[in-house]
Write a sequence for this structure.
């Protein structure tokens, strides 16, 4: 299977990006497939102080890549401009090096532009008549398999974002994680110092459901939000994202369909679609999902479940009010519709605590509740959880055991100490204050620079402002133009494939100074259309 | 989809286990599905000092389980004997408590034995005529979904093992991980102490391929085994098991088939089968895979790849010799057949270093190489890697980003320091000496107690001895009988579904004293047949 039939992706097409290029310019002629920016190593550079000429160092380096199989036959080389940028040399040096490799028959130009690693003669070229010949057109290297497999690739824009987040100098206006300065550096170091004096026995595997002390701590934490879930009802996951993956693989048959808010975070990942699950998007108003519309669509689509982010919705920031939550539980109860509640942001209220989670209203085992430490404490711990009926979390634990044999014990131990030591509650208080300031700062900047260009909500919590442009703009073009201006954007199409007039802004990542540079630049881009 | 069509599993049937029961006895009449032992919480017990009678405490506890939805309608309760064991009370107490719940209509007996949580009246029982009625027979709770989903459950025996490993008192004769006393407690604590003074910025997400310092350290480590893989060719995974999952989802189309040794570790997990990939097992001799047989089967089955564990094979302990490795590379080269090399055990040589890995013989990008820190350093770090062609590891990294957004940063930082600080090499030297003693001890015990009952290999590394019984024995029966005797076994059918005469023994986990008790007990069981 190739990914040509990836859902609703065809309109994104192929487009070239050139970040930080000395000469901002239109798309390079030779592109990597999928329109994503090609990657070199990001580490090696030729040594100008060496006696060996730069072009010879580069040729030797590329030769090593090819002869080790790291760049296998059929692989496209990065465009020349990109090679120049990454190796820090000028074009003639790269052209000379590539010429040497071409002369050796190691690389070759191809019709339509671009350069490929050439097919080599089989290294085992002895002519044993007993051995079968290789299938024609089959090199036997793994590169032939890159477009195979049942799991969809990320959207090109998401692939670019995942990589560009590690390029220094970009202002990240949409990043859904706390800036490093919002993370609890000193407190986490105290947790580690405690661990370093304590672990015994050291770092074995944990039980399938996860470390018991951590599950007990999560249970107590959930109780404070009104959720009764004892440790046997809780599965520790490697982040909430893994919870989604486990549910997609473990609970839903191929061909089922699920209801969800539209736009939704879930559109930006492919966990469910790769498992053959279809989406049925529902509209929201300022109070969240609209129960009547949900009922009609549930019946029409024969939905297997509802996925919802009731508190500080990603990407719109909407908070579902208490009455809607009750209505939603009633309507879905009558429909016999289970709910997957994503509570990733519920702790991050800024003005007042949100109403109790849907799980707190559930007495039938109809709600699975996802939570995470990534949004407040530390994304890098990769610790999340699923609370739900015991037979269900055991089924998911069994798949987790087959996926990665459990989350990092080190992370689980650190997370247990983090929660039990009171660090988490203390940190949340500090974090809320800082996020409130950041939100207000971003709102003020939007008022100053974007009034007349867009409208937006005032979120009561979470990370996100959903910017509605007054005029639509092709998202990939906007993304690319922004990148040239030094801005990394999360365009609305990531959360609703047909969207052409929204941006997800986040006040959690960029600093005040970056926002002060970034928002006016963004306004300029929107103005230019 | 239900799991009734799980591959080759029907012969395992349903059987009841009763561990540590005061009265070892035949199978309970009411069983959990799949023949696995039911789980309660393992934490709560009634308080004999309380003024409230035990049966009332238990009834209140179970009521809370049911009314919170943790035990949803339709869920089977654990058998009475199991409830007694776990709650530490006698049968009449449990019977009284269950009687109270039955009287309330909360649980009900069912034909064929067993007790289910009863369907409740919908909590949202108001009669809004606008709402659709629930589908008949659909409760809407997640319990209905436990047998859905495309991912196969673990084999019942594997599920039992995964859970029973946390029951104290069992002698684990087949566990494929180092005993806690073989793990580097003090050295890992030094690594953590170092981290606790250093991390800044704290625990953010890492790059899609993984932490750069860790990739550089793995690259240097691989170089010592003859593998040229620079950091851009390496993906850090959450254990080597996740590498298998990513390859199954990312590189192989549904319906492809793969070659592998038979028996193989890969038969004991369902990563590939759940992705719709078929297995084609190959025989081995004492030198590993037999190249001629491989060629014939590759052509017949149109295999997409070969999976192999050339060094200290799991479960047989076989070491593929250097000549076979060369032949294998030649034959697969002519066939155009890519290889997935599992190098989990290659560092753990006991007598002499093994020949260079297959990846060291690869110059075309035809081998993906898996490695891990779980077998020598710390299973709980959950750190492994895949080395291979850059476009391939980037594809896998993209799926990993969609699966769990990267491995724990804390684990990655600890692993980098572990490798770079020289701890790993130092620990390996110590570990090899201890494993050598353990191997020799187990071999001596086998010689003393099992000669005439079985034959076995003398492994030159890794963890495993593959015990060949002279007479076949039904594996599930042997497993259950062993459990009653206090032994946890890994039966041969986990690694070759049709096997009825092998056991995978491991000298890595059980202590000398446990082996001295366990091997004679095992010999007794084998003798009884």
């Amino acid at each position: 299977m190739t990914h040509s039939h990836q859902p609703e992706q065809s309109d994104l097409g192929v487009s070239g990006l050139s970040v930080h290029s000395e000469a901002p310019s239109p798309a390079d002629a030779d592109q990597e497939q999928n329109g994503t920016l090609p990657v070199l190593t990001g580490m090696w550079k030729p040594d100008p102080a060496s006696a060996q000429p730069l072009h010879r160092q580069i040729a030797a380096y590329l030769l090593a890549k090819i002869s080790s199989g790291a760049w296998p036959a059929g692989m496209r080389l990065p465009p020349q401009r990109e090679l120049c940028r990454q190796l820090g040399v000028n074009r003639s040096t790269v052209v000379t090096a590539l010429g040497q490799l071409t002369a050796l028959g190691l690389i070759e130009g191809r019709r339509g532009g671009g350069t490929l690693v050439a097919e080599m003669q089989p290294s085992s070229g002895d002519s044993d008549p007993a051995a079968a010949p290789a299938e024609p057109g089959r090199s036997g290297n793994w590169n032939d398999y890159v477009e195979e497999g049942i799991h969809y690739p990320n959207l090109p824009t998401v692939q670019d974002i995942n990589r560009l987040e590690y390029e220094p100098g970009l202002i990240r206006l949409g990043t859904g994680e706390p800036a490093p300065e919002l993370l609890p550096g000193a407190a986490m170091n105290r947790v580690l110092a405690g661990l370093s004096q304590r672990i015994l026995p050291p770092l074995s595997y944990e039980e399938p459901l996860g470390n018991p002390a951590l599950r007990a701590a999560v249970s107590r934490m959930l109780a404070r939000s009104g959720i009764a879930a004892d440790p046997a009802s809780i599965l520790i996951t490697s982040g909430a994202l893994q919870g989604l993956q486990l549910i997609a693989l473990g609970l839903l048959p191929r061909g089922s369909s699920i209801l969800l808010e539209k736009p939704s975070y879930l559109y930006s990942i492919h966990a469910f679609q790769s498992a053959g699950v279809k989406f049925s998007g529902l509209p929201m108003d300022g109070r969240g999902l609209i129960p009547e519309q949900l009922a009609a669509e549930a019946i029409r689509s024969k939905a297997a479940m509802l996925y919802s982010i009731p508190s500080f919705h990603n990407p719109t920031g909407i908070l579902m009010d208490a009455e809607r939550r009750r209505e939603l539980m009633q309507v879905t109860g009558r429909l016999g519709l289970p709910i997957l509640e994503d509570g990733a942001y519920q702790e991050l209220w800024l003005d007042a605590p949100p109403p109790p989670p849907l799980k707190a209203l559930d007495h039938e085992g109809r709600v699975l509740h996802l939570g995470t430490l990534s949004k407040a404490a530390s994304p890098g711990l990769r610790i999340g959880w699923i609370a739900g009926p015991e037979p269900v979390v055991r089924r998911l634990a069994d798949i987790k055991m087959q996926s990665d044999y459990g989350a990092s014990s080190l992370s689980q131990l650190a997370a247990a100490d983090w929660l039990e030591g009171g660090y988490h509650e203390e940190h949340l208080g500090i974090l809320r204050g800082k996020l409130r300031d950041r939100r207000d700062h971003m709102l003020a900047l939007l008022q100053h620079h974007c009034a007349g260009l867009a409208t937006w909500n005032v979120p009561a919590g979470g990370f996100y402002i959903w910017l509605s442009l007054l005029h639509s703009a092709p998202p990939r073009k906007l993304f690319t133009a922004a990148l040239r201006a030094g801005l990394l954007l999360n365009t609305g199409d990531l959360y609703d494939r047909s969207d052409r007039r929204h941006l997800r802004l986040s006040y959690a990542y960029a600093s005040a100074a970056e926002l002060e540079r970034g928002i006016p630049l963004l306004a300029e881009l929107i103005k230019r259309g």
Notes: The radius of gyration of chain B is 26 Å. Chain B touches chain A through 150 residues (CB under 8 Å). Residues 1-35, 122-134 of chain B have pLDDT under 50 and may be disordered. Residues 450 and 479 of chain B are 18 Å apart (CA to CA).
